[in-house]
Request: fold
Amino acid sequence: MALDKNGIAKRIAQELENNTYVNLGIGIPTLVANHIPKNINVEFQSENGVLGMGPFPLEGEEDPDMINAGKQTITTMPGAVLFDSATSFSMIRGNHIQLSVLGAMEVAENGDIANWKIPGKMVKGMGGAMDLVASSENIIVAMNHTNRKGESKLLKKCTLPITGVNCVKKIVTDLAVIDITLEGFKLIERAPGVSIEEIISATQANLIVDGNIPEMIL
Amino acid sequence: MINKEIKTIEEAIAGVKSGMTFMFGGFGLSGIPENAIKAISNSGIKNLTCISNNAGIDGFGLGLLLEKKQIKKMISSYVGENAEFERQMLSNEIEVELIPQGSLAERCRAGGAGIPAFFTPAGYGTEVQMNKEVRVFNGKKHILEHALISDFSFVKAWKGDTAGNLIFKGTARNFNPLMAMAGKITVAEVEELVPVGALNPNEIHTAGIFVQRIIKGDVFEKRIENRTTRKKN
Reply:
């Protein structure tokens, strides 16, 4: 069965490495923070100016001066630090963040990503996404395999204006875990109960299927 | 110490004119100069170029200037959450330049720091790169971005002294220190204005040299855009 948002987030959480700094984008990526494996210590950065982001505040304890990049009220962990936007993007551009998790509207088999604009329809802006994808050494995309119309979001080439080139390393969708290799998309794992054929048919680009493809363990 | 204290918001924004370029600190609604925005809205000046990470929401923040069609051009990184803005943008009533958030921050910082331009990898290969010089450094492609300066920068801090030294709170710091540096005239509004000597020099975030006028804000509504909480246990 296809995963829900939390399933995708849970699978991505397995990619977290101990003692690293991580930036989570808006949407499904934010949910990754709810599924950190027990033995793993990570610090979350939010590009509006906080490192060491904690959970949402208790009801009644919201502070308008303490928000994340999604403008949600947050708290900070012990040892957290606050800074201005230029310092924040020095951390990002300067490659001090080890992992960036983003949502996407399209990903191409060469690692191009589109997630900021639908010409004539949705023009909200790129926020920090272009800086993140241009500099992070490891970028994982969290998204559904197909869009609301049922069209594949894993393409030979992006049709929407792109956010960055050759940057995505891994995609976790509701159906599969896919690595982006020099040869293109490579199927790594299937969502529980989802067949290879279903994944291939939901993928517009070529999908490399090599040997037995295990189910995700969630 | 130079005394920069201003008593009324009208005096604080004195000299603003139609056609000028303004910077507004803040991220979302956090750390926005609410009092200056209201005063500019009341002044009725038009054809403004506004540099701000976001464009406020309907009826609050820069949404107030949008409603009265005071903004000719907006330079931002993210302008969602504002229906009136989206309407003006899609019907070409307002000119919009969207730039990556880190480039926006650095362009303001550079403007204040006397760096005319810099290379960044952000936006290479995208629409943002259009008509910009590309150069390869350490095997990676970068695009040339130019510094930004403003006629007026409007910033908001938590505490300030009459010399213009500022301390910010939480994530309300964001673009404020950078835009303070990049203003020909920087107007800071603070929740608490203290005499010179009352702030610990070790704890000042923005040096008063970057601030020309400082005022204790009348009202800070400090709206929350996206209230998220958890239950006990």
